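TL;DR need structure tokens for one chain.
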Amino acid sequence: MSRTALAIVAVIVVAVVATIGAIVLTTARSEPAAAPANGTRVAFYGDSYTLGTGASAKSQRWSTVICTQRGWSEFNHSTNGLGFINNRAALRIDEPGQVIDDRPDIVFVTMGLNDNFSYDTAAKQIHAQIGTDLRRLRNALPDARLVVVEPFWYTDERPTSLGVIIGWVEAAASEVGADYIPGASRWIAHHPEWMASDGLHPNDAGYAEMARRMDVELSKLGL
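>> reply
TL;DR here they are.
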């Protein structure tokens, strides 16, 4: 084979190897870095934003990202459309009961978004149920770390009900001695590129941002 031909083959091989390397790196970066499992059981009481609706895979939702990063075992019972009151009777789902049955070391409560859609007809019930649920979790799991997150939100417009519900959730968290993470209702505001095609839920980029913000807040709490 001539020197020219050998040179061409060498260039092609280098290009192929570089391309494969780039693909491998890109794929690796799409998944959160996994920490060794440490036996910590973490349960989630949440809605579609914690279930991961809109993500391309469960591995992309914020709850799974933070659990993978920390070596936690995830127990995620989150349900589309569920609120402290919204759709609770219709769906006949007892998420707090499921969380209690998991016997977790840490509990995340990320509810309240969907209750904005029931606020006009059920404000008193929502207020009462927030306190009832948090007290139930605290009493049943006295040794668990309870982390209550400000209700998520999905549009730049913020209804009056959102601020009211956020206040109720924060007050109830304080009442039971839970850790409280503020500001979550604004984490994906003003970024339409972080929303899935349905316009209601985050996409992978949106969940990545939520995971990043949650990681910062959890680090402040020593978690």
